[in-house]
Every structure is written in C-alpha cells, then in structure tokens.
Amino acid sequence: MTSVGEAEFREEVRVALAGFAPRRESVDDDAVADDRVSVVAERSEGEAEELAELKRYRAHLAHHGLAWVDGPAAFGGRELTPRHTALLRELEADYVLPDDGYLRFSISTLSPTLLAHGSPQQQADLLPPLRTAELIACQLYSEPGAGSDLAGLSTRAERVDGGWRINGQKVWSSGAHFSDLGLCIARTDPSVPKHAGLTTFLVDMHAPGVDVRPIRQLTGGASFDEVFLTDVFVPDDRRVGEVDAGWSVVVTSLLNERSAIGREVGVDDTLVERLVDLARTARQPLDERTRDAVADVVVRAWAARLTTDRFLEAGTPGPELALTKLLTTDLLAQISDIAADILETSHVADSGEWGTYAWSELTLGLPGLRIGGGTDEILKNAVGERVLQLPKDAR
Ligand SMILES: Cc1cc2nc3c(=O)[nH]c(=O)nc-3n(C[C@H](O)[C@H](O)[C@H](O)COP(=O)(O)OP(=O)(O)OC[C@H]3O[C@@H](n4cnc5c(N)ncnc54)[C@H](O)[C@@H]3O)c2cc1C
Predict the structure, then answer these.
(1) DSSP codes joined into one string, 184-222
(2) How high is the mean pLDDT in each 10-residue block of the chain (395 residues)?
(3) Distance 20 CA to ligand 1 centre (A)
(4) Among 42, 47, 92, 257, the one annotated catalytic
(5) How many CB atoms lie within 10 A of CB 170?
(6) How far, in Å, CA of 137 to CA of 109, rounded?
(7) What is the pLDDT of residue 27?
(8) How confident is the model at residue 258, as a pLDDT?
(9) Which end of the chain is more exposed for a tag (fewer CB within 10 A), N or C?
(10) Buried b / exposed e across 86-116, counting CB within 10 Å, b at 16+?
(11) CATH 1.20.140.10 applies to domain 266-387
C-alpha cells in the first residue's frame, strides 16, 4: 500500500474534480440546478445522456489515477486506503457530477467479488474496464419464485461443449437494460441440498437468448428489468468460482452490496443540507417536533457515517454491515417524513416550484430501497443470528 497524506490527497482530488465540473456552491441559481432527491438512479428520459457523461467522468478519474483509489495497481488501482476512497466521495459531494448510482453494482459489488473469487484472467480482463465504466454490470440473482430465499432459485445451467447453457428467468435486475455483463447464479446440480448445487457465471448481456424487459416503477422510472435467459451460452472461462460453489460468491457479493448501500446511497451531506434548507425556508414556522426531528436527522446522519467508517476500517465486510443499510433506510424514512410534513400538498402535487414536488421521488423510491439488497426483516435476522449470536429463526 502506498502512502499519501490526507491534506495532499484532498488537494490532488480537488484539482482533478475542478478539471471536470463546477463546485456546487458556484451553481447559485437554484432555479437552474437539478432539484432531484432520489435514492436510486432511475431516470428513463435522459438516461443515455447521463450514462455517457458518467463514462466521461470515470475516464477523467482514471486519467488522474483516481478510478480505484484503494484497488490493486495491477488493475489500475492506487493502492491507497479505504479512508482515501471515503475522502474522494466526500469531496465529490462538493461538485456537480453525474449520478454514479448506475455503477453501484459494477464498482462496489462486482469488483470486490471478482477480486475475491474471479480467475486471474477474469480479474485482468474485467476489473479495469469495470472501474472506468467501459463495461457496466448488473446482478442476475432474484427470480419470480426466489428473493429472500435466493437459494431456492430455478434457473438452470447445463454443461455443453466449451461451457454452459443457461435457461431461466430473473427479475428486479437493476440496470440490466444498459449492462454489458450480468453476474448470474444458476442451479448446476439439482440433486444436492439447495445451497450446494449453485454456480455463478458472468453472462454477456448482448448474447443471443438474453431478453431484457424494463419494469415501470412507482416513481415513474424504469430502473430495473425482467431478464429472460433462453439457451444462453456462457463459456467456461466466464464461470466465477468453482462449479457448485456459487453460494460463497453470492455471500461475498451481498455483503459488499449491503455495505455499499449503507455507504453510498442517499444520506450524504448534500441530502442533509437539502433538508435543513427546506426547514429554514419553510413557509410556515416549524413546530418544535419538526425542529427536533431535523436536528435528530443531522446527528443520526453523522453517527451512521461514523459507524459505517468504523466497520469499513475493520477490513473485510462482515454481517455487521447489514446494520449500515438498516441505519440508512431508517434515516431516509425519517427525512422523507419530515419533508412531507413541511411541504404538505406541494409534496404530492407538482406546482412547478423548485425543490418541492422533487421530494416525492425520495418518498416513492424508499420502499424499494428497504427491499433491494435484502429486506429489513432479512437484515435484522442476519444481525440477530450472525452478529448477536441469537438462536436461529424458525425455518
Ligand atoms: C430497488 C430494487 C432493486 C433490486 N435490484 C436487484 C438486482 O439488481 N438484482 C437482483 O437479483 N435482485 C434485485 N432486487 C430484488 C431483491 O433482492 C428482492 O426483491 C429481495 O431479495 C426480496 O425478495 P422478494 O421480492 O422475492 O420478496 P420475498 O422474499 O418474497 O419477501 C416478501 C416479504 O417476506 C419477508 N420475509 C421473507 N423471508 C423472511 C424471513 N425468513 N423472515 C422474516 N421475513 C421474511 C420479507 O422481508 C418481505 O417483507 C431488487 C429489488 C428492489 C426493490
């Protein structure tokens, strides 16, 4: 691991970011700044333009040696610490940058999963383009009959000459319609207990037999899809991990996904500041309960961030990271409730006034966040059983 002091790194990042975008504070006319308050990237209109801009930004970061701050040099990383990565994210919040939610799976989930389970060839071929967004990936786990009980899935992979043939249906696959790769779990041995006969594969989303159909959501966006896999050929060198040992790959990816949701989704300084601004400029004076609730959010956001940092500094993500997602979703629910109280009817009726109806996107997107990456109930089970060592849930 190389060493770069915090002050020096901050300066380096500021120079790099200033070369790409203006600082938020310099965009002083709120009427022209985007007023979206969303928890997951889910734009339908303008998605292609946002993605193109995001790819341009990731290339810019790579040019400045910042595409993978704490990653291995062999794959374009800088070999700095997770603290440096957190600093980059903190400084990014000060600039008007494209929404990087589109890359959450590629960067925060698939990259560490491939580092842990991928073959040397997969790591060399895929990690650099995943970090620069030349390749975008999605997660093909959930099925119509398998969500919380994922190991009960029915997609099948059968051995054929040179690889595997996959048949089945996946659902709620975020970003499948703009992805190049899908990390897919399929049953390779139906004769053994359900967790034992599963294998993970990297499916080429442009291959014959892959049919992606967007699902329209409550928010109006269509950020996730149904994916039908019909006789899709996957070469054996795109199998991740050993045959029938896919469950350990899934566990690694889910731990990283939960940690990423806790770390990266939503409750950043910008969102908290937006809430405080909303409270300051409310048309009616706030009652004591609402003032108290705003202050509570500010304090809890700090506590949540410090808790997540502490877990991450401890190294490899463990089951305790379920807590970071729970903290985040609880905080977002609190923020959404306060915004709804302050805004009253303009929260649900679009008057065209800046920064009012936009909050409805947070309110409508939140239930999905409580489900994606593991529901609240499943995460509480994980904390009870694996962190607190309580007796197992009846199954
Ligand atoms: C915004 C969003 C993005 C998503 N992105 C992806 C993606 O990219 N890729 C992908 O593969 N999937 C994705 N999903 C799917 C997600 O992982 C599943 O929806 C989730 O795992 C729950 O599965 P389910 O919908 O089948 O609900 P079920 O598992 O049927 O659960 C229904 C209800 O029962 C409760 N429940 C189930 N089992 C237990 C238990 N043992 N104890 C207590 N309560 C229980 C659950 O908490 C829930 O309230 C996404 C979902 C959302 C909402």
Answers:
(1) EEEES-TTS-TTTTEEEEEEETTSTTEEEEEE--TTS--
(2) 87 97 69 68 76 97 96 95 88 90 93 97 98 97 96 98 98 96 98 96 98 89 93 98 97 85 66 91 91 96 84 73 86 95 92 89 89 90 92 80
(3) 38
(4) 257
(5) 27
(6) 10
(7) 52
(8) 77
(9) C
(10) bbbeebbebbebbbbbbbbbbbbbbbbbbbb
(11) yes
Q: What is the DSSP string of 78-141?
A: ----HHHHHHHHHHHTTB----GGGGIIIIIIIHHHHHHHS-HHHHHHHHHHHHHTSS-EEEE-
Residue 217 alpha carbon, nearest atom of ligand 1:
1
- Type of residue found at 87: L
Instruction: Judge contact between 197 and 190, C-beta under 8 A.
Output: yes
| Tokens 């149904």, residue located | 226
What is the pLDDT at residue 103? 94
The CATH superfamily label for domain 6-132 reads Acyl-CoA dehydrogenase/oxidase, N-terminal domain (1.10.540.10)
What residues does CATH 1.10.540.10 cover in the chain? 6-132
Question: What's the confidence (pLDDT) of residue 146?
Answer: 96
For 266-298, give the DSSP string.
S-SHHHHHHHHHHHHT-SSPPPHHHHHHHHHHH
Compute the distance from residue 372 Cα to the ligand 1 centre, in Å. 6
Second CATH level (architecture) for the domain 137-245: Beta Barrel (2.40)
Rounded (10°) angle between helices 269-280 and 322-343: 20
257 is annotated as an active-site residue: yes
Residue 225: strand, helix, or coil:
strand
Place of tokens 């390749």: 135
State how beta strands 181-187 and 137-140 pair. Answer: parallel
Instruction: Give the SS3 label for residue 181.
Output: strand
CA of 84 relative to ligand 1 center, distance in Å:
33
Closest residue by CA, ligand 1 atom 26: 147
User: How many residues comprise the chain?
Assistant: 395
Measured distance CA(248)–CA(389) in Å, rounded:
21
